[in-house]
Amino acid sequence: MVPALEVADIFRRHGEAFRQARAGHLGYVERRIMGAITACRTAALGGHVEQCDGCGATRIAYNSCRNRHCPKCQGLARAKWLADRQAELLPVPYFHVVFTLPAPVGEIAFQNKAAVGAILFRTAAETLAAIAADRRHLGAKLGVTMVLHTWGQSLQYHPHVHCIVPGGGPSLDGTRWVACRPGFFLPVRVLSRLFRRLFLQELKNALAAGKLRFFSNLANLAEPQVFARRLGELRRLDWVVYAKPPFGGPEQVLAYLGRYTHRVAIANSRLISLSDGKVRFTWKDYRQGGKTKVMTLEADEFIRRFLLHALPDGFHRIRHYGILANGSRGESLARCHRLLDARDTGVICERTDNRTKSDRPITAADFAICPNCGGTMRPIATVPRACNSQPFSCDTS
Q1: Is the separation of the CB atoms in 361 and 79 below 8 Å?
Q2: Where are the extended beta strands (E) located within 327-389?
Q3: Do the domain assignments include residue 85?
Q4: Distances (CA, A) of 333 to 26, 88, 124, 179, 397
Q5: Do 122 and 174 form a contact (C-beta atoms < 8 A)?
Q6: I need a labelling partner for 350 at 20 to 30 A (CA). Which of 118, 218, 263, 382 fits?
Q7: Which among 241, 199, 238, 236 has a CA at the least distance from the CA of 108?
Q8: pTM of the prediction?
Q9: Taking Cα atoms as reference points, which of 222, 229, 194 lies closest to residue 208?
């Protein structure tokens, strides 16, 4: 079902006023995102005519913008990504660990998205690897898939990484599989303290290397003495690392990954209305047990918050570390399977098709089903682009 209201509708009605009001401050990336989302699946991008091979029904399917910030373009991208990951999953329980930056660090991260984002990924991975390698905790090598999210439910800037981790790994000498204790991964207090120390050291190194820039209310942090005082303040804060309860085998992991890998700041399904220049949308208040509430923002403020989460060009928001690192993943996984075959994991991970529709990962075939009879929609003609005079309407890069 197509949502009654989309982010694209908000951009179409209020985007031009937003651009004009911020003519000297809106960056190229943000402008491109607005243009792509506005044009997505419209005549501006062209498309093709599809016909059902069952009932003969026809429809026009306009092309997607494929921008990674677009709420409408993530379903197929997620399906393709999950299909690639399916063969890489191990028949063991998996854990979900979240590393979150405190709000004062989030301010620094916002002004240095690429540099601080890379530090967040790297130090979270180093933290997991170091504690897992400690024989007092596990004594094993880990593999980690990490996904960066920068938003909270109210669309404010809130950088954190979601880590999906197998519950164990090869021993340090590579001779056996070491499993986590049932229901327990690694101590979160130990993780949080090491994460804080590693992150702040890397942040200090980044400033010394000239990789950080500060402006507006943080301009004084460019002074080494001021920055050193800020680091001291950050060392006294509690840094949150959260480990969720473990979940089962490969099929459950695929469904779980699908909730996180290709999310954008807000899904169209959360939008309620756009009237009198105000946007109403649902959000979950986790301070009250995840209670669902309704938030109302001026359209200008909604667009501003949405664009806070624009990622720099070339920045990878999904990364793999340890035994899942891209360079040696195939060899490492083969070794893991050999070690697991040599022992009884005690985990039933048979692949079945008895999942509910909501749990089943979406595939490309799901986007070519006839809504009338369930037949297959096949392209029969091309629809050319229909660029018009509206600014940015045909920007798909």
Answers
A1: yes
A2: 377-383
A3: no
A4: 44, 7, 22, 15, 35
A5: no
A6: 263
A7: 199
A8: 0.87
A9: 222
CB distance 46 to 58 below 8 Å: no
The DSSP 8-state label assigned to residue 171 in this structure reads: B
Amino acid at position 120, single letter: L
Place of tokens 């130990």: 190
DSSP string, 144-156: EEEEEEEE-TT--
Kindly state the DSSP code that residue 56 receives in the 8-state scheme: -
Taking only the tens place, the pLDDT of each residue in 161-202 is: 999 999 999 999 999 999 998 888 899 999 999 999 999 999
At residue 85, φ and ψ (nearest 5 deg) are: -80, -20
Q: How many separate domains does the chain show? A: 1
Say how far apart CA 48 and CA 1 lie, in whole Å: 21
Q: Based on the number of CB atoms within 10 Å of its own CB, is 224 exposed (0-12), middle (13-18) or buried (19 or more)? A: exposed
Give CA separation, 152 vs 104, 160, 285, in Å. 15, 10, 10
3-state secondary structure of 318: strand
Q: Could you say which DSSP state residue 392 is in?
A: T
Look at residue 292 and tell me if it is in a domain.
no
- Domain extent at residue 331: 92-265+308-341
